[in-house]
DNA sequence: CTTCTATTCATTGTATACAATTAAATTTTG
DNA sequence: CAAAATTTAATTGTATACAATGAATAGAAG
């Protein structure tokens, strides 16, 4: 017989496995990312730059679902490491343009092994992974 | 034609929608949790206590996938609010026992509406939600 | 042209997360 | 039993996240 408060049980929540799983994935990433000296947030920022070569902070924030409060310190770290450059746009001084450096491009070669190694650590087959992917984006795009 | 570096695109990652989706869900929770004055982490800790009435920090950490470094400040906050009590175990002084108070039990009555309201905010039907749930726990239990 | 508004990023303050270390209590071992 | 190893929380240090605010620039309106 269902109790009134059963909805409040952790096991009946969808939010909780989502929250826990996201942390778990980042935890599995850690040893791989340690090898190239990046944190997870730095890594996903670099992923955008490896693809786009150049983006504004605003665009980067839209891709990553992060705001300048989070991105500013992350980008300053990546600049310190020499992987990116941060320059104000000539056309609009409000805009900060982030550009991939040679060194940042080099890092890509080391990072390319990571997704495959990560894939082996996740207990889903191809079909399940695609389904999960689709459902997550269905929530994200709503 | 697939490029060598395509695996590094954000859109080809499973980890990223997981990470973004978890944050998105917490963001959707915020206005509901604001009404009862809890953060998301405080909320999931209370969910365990609403069910168990009493747990050690270690047990709580196992349920929530969190360590004492995260839980200690969260539990001190909940104690300040009067929803829990923190006492050392008589049998084993190393163990800290967290107990739900009357006030904490009262809070449950206000919280019980939240899961239903959240359900309406997530763009999945029953079947999809069950599938997502199953896949997430498959990863978590691996 | 000038004031008002909007945009973009940085800063501030609060709250997680988690690795690594510390401290205290308990258990195991020789 | 006494020393060593283990267990449990708390603490410390680093890195996110994000709301709210601030500061500078750009655009719109009169």
How does this structure look, described?
Two copies of one chain form a homodimer. By secondary structure, chain A is mainly α. In chain A, 63% of the residues lie in helices and 9% in strands. Chain A has helices at 15-36, 40-52, 57-64, 68-80, 102-111, 114-121, 126-140, and strands spanning 54-56, 84-88, 96-100. A three-stranded antiparallel sheet of chain A has the order 1-3-2. In chain A, strand 2 (84-88) and strand 3 (96-100) form a beta hairpin. The longest helix of chain A has 22 residues, at 15-36. The model of chain A has no long low-confidence stretch (mean pLDDT 95). At the A-B interface, helix 1, helix 2, helix 6 and helix 7 of A face helix 1, helix 2, helix 6 and helix 7 of B. Chain A binds a DNA duplex (30 and 30 nucleotides) through residues 23, 26-27, 30, 39-42, 56-58, 66-74, 77, 88, 92-96.
The multimeric state of the shown protein is homodimer
Strand order of the largest sheet of chain A: 1-3-2
Tell me the radius of gyration of chain A: 19 Å
N-to-C SSE string of chain A, H for helix and E for strand: HHEHHEEHHH
Question: Secondary structure elements and their pairing?
Answer:
Two copies of one chain form a homodimer.
Chain A (H helix, E strand, L loop, with lengths): L14 H22 L3 H13 L1 E3 H8 L3 H13 L3 E5 L7 E5 L1 H10 L2 H8 L4 H15 L2
Antiparallel strand pairs in A: 1-3, 2-3
The structure holds a DNA duplex (30 and 30 nucleotides).
């Amino acid at each position: 017989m269902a109790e009134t408060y059963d909805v409040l049980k952790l096991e009946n929540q969808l939010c909780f496995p989502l929250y826990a799983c996201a942390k778990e994935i980042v935890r599995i990433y850690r040893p791989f990312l340690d090898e190239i000296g990046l944190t997870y947030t730095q890594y996903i920022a670099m992923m955008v730059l490896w693809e786009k070569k150049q983006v504004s902070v605003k665009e980067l924030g839209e891709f990553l679902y992060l705001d300048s409060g989070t991105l500013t310190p992350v980008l300053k770290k990546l600049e310190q490491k020499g992987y990116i450059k941060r320059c104000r746009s000539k056309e609009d001084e409000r805009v900060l343009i982030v550009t991939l450096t040679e060194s940042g491009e080099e890092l890509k070669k080391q990072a390319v092994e990571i997704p495959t190694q990560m894939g082996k650590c996740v207990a889903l087959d191809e079909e399940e992974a695609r389904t999960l992917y689709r459902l997550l984006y269905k929530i994200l795009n709503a």
